[in-house]
Design a protein that fits this description.
The protein has helices spanning 6-98, 107-115, 123-133, 140-152; strands at 120-122, 156-161, 164-169. The protein has a domain at 99-169: Orthogonal Bundle (Arc Repressor Mutant, subunit A). It has a 3-stranded antiparallel β-sheet with strand order 1-3-2. The termini are far apart. The chain is built from 4 helices and 3 strands, in the order ααβααββ. A hairpin with a 2-residue loop joins strand 2 (156-161) and strand 3 (164-169).
Length: 172
């Protein structure tokens, strides 16, 4: 006795055929999905690389901008330091100009004495120093006269150095 009848066998064969056909359709669909996935990964990688490259480019631009800003900041800091030195010098001059005159000096002589630097200098150097401070109206003759009066009163001393007169401030 046969286990299966012919009709049942035929039905089973058709069912196996249908299953095999369905499996082949699924394999084709799987291949399409795999291809799409690999393309997608490739596209994603390309997009990620493009984004990464753009971000690196922007980072380089920002680093250049930061360097420029640091350079500007350093220049401004140097300028501020120079201005602080100038302000300190101006403060010293202001204090010298507004200080109460010495007992035996006129206000003008006292200002000249306070503003002139220590150490030996030529008359021209001392005059240039006073002129640069702001005594623009002071003539060289009046300055020489003031220096001689300061020497006479013991605030400056002079000495001849190979025909050139050197002046030195005396601390009093």
């Amino acid at each position: 006795m046969p286990l299966l009848k012919d009709t049942e066998r035929e039905q089973l064969r058709q069912l196996v055929k249908a299953c095999l056909l369905e499996i082949s359709k699924l394999k084709v669909e799987l291949k399409k999905c795999q291809n799409a996935s690999s393309k997608s990964k490739s596209t994603d990688n390309i997009q990620l690389k493009a984004v990464k490259d753009e971000l690196q480019k922007q980072l380089k631009e920002k680093n250049v901008e930061i360097k420029q800003l640091k350079t500007i900041l350093n220049e401004k800091n140097a300028l501020i330091r120079d201005l602080e030195v100038d302000l300190e010098r101006i403060k010293t001059y202001f204090e010298a100009l507004t200080e109460k005159p010495k007992k035996d000096l006129t206000s003008f002589q006292s200002q000249i004495y306070q503003l002139l630097p220590q150490g030996e200098s030529t008359e021209n150097d001392l005059y240039s120093h006073i002129y640069d401070i702001g005594f623009k109206e002071l003539s060289t003759e009046n300055f020489k006269h003031a220096l001689k009066n300061l020497e006479r009163k013991g605030y400056f001393k002079s000495r001849n150095n190979n025909g050139e007169l050197l002046w030195e401030k005396v601390d009093k």
